[in-house]
Amino acid sequence: MAIILVVDDSEDIRVMLQDFLQLEGHTVLLAEDGGQGLRIFQSHVQDIDLLISDIYMPEMDGLEVIRLARAMKPDLKIIAMSAGDKKGNLAFLDFAGDFGAAHLLPKPFKIQDLLVVVNQLLA
Amino acid sequence: MAMEVINITYTFNFPDGHQETFVVNLDPETVEVTDPLPENLPEWTRLDFHKCAHCPLDSETHPHCPLSARIAGIVDRFTQIISYEEMVVEVQTPERTVSKDTTAQQGLSALMGLVMATSGCPITALFKPMAAFHLPFANSDETTYRAASMYLLAQYYLNREVGKVDLSMRGLEDFYRSIEVLNEHMAKRVRAATERDAAINALVELDFFAKNFTFGLEDRLEELKYVFQPYLDRFEAGNE
After folding, report:
1. Domain boundaries defined on chain A
2. What sign does the dihedral B69-B18-B103-B95 (CA atoms) show?
3. In chain B, what residues touch A87 (CB-CB under 8 Å)?
4. What are phi and psi of B159, to 5 degrees?
5. What is the mean pLDDT of chain B?
6. Domain A3-122 belongs to what architecture?
7. What is the pTM of this model?
């Protein structure tokens, strides 16, 4: 089983994602914004197998987290997620792919779909 | 005895002093919003625009999706708001006033959950008991407890009326699966209507609560079992 870092500014979504991933046997670390996410990533850089990050967040956005985490660990597996809006939030999701996210998940998504992607990336 | 209209007021207090207030008046018998709909509804509220795959309504009789029509005013007033903008949201119900330091996304999620249940949508109508006893800002465990309790009380009434019950909770799981489908379609509608992400993320947040019932429901209920231990102890002691 893997160690997964989840970064999302919504506490409810963070905690529920943690529950779903723990049910699958994974260990889950949580961060409430990009800055905290990056600090946690730095202190567990060797242990974290997968980063799941929201894009649109206060302090530091998900694109920056993905870019910096990827620089520290080039083989890191990354899933980016976002709800999208007319200001280009979904376009940011595409940028996340350019920055190294292996999979882009538009919210809302099915948990089963997330778990399929998680299993594929960790295989 | 005539029952009074259930009046619930949401006030969003922005850091710059600006306020947005939404008053939801519910008919005490039908638990549906009593206020008239605006005359000019936006295009994204038309029934056939991203119509839910399982919607039983016909656009001949219902040109507008009742749920979209009811949330249109909320979406419109939050179209420029960012989801993580912090604010104080105060909710006044007939019984109490609740105030919370929260985000636009969470406050909107609570309000939209209430309005969606009471909008006249035939799918979300099963949430009416929870709306009648509205608990703003309920967390994941509270929502699981409230929804499971609502479902089991519905089984009690069903048993009395038609002699059929579902104690397996399969029906609750199926219901929330249909809510996930609805949320997916609603997200497409709202995405077409908003400039920023507060309203769409409020829907996403509601959708995550739905996922609690469609993925690992048995595990979720098992986590709440400890508070029911006195019932189990009493049964084991032969005092049932």
Report:
1. 3-122
2. negative
3. 195-197
4. -60, -40
5. 94
6. 3-Layer(aba) Sandwich (3.40)
7. 0.91
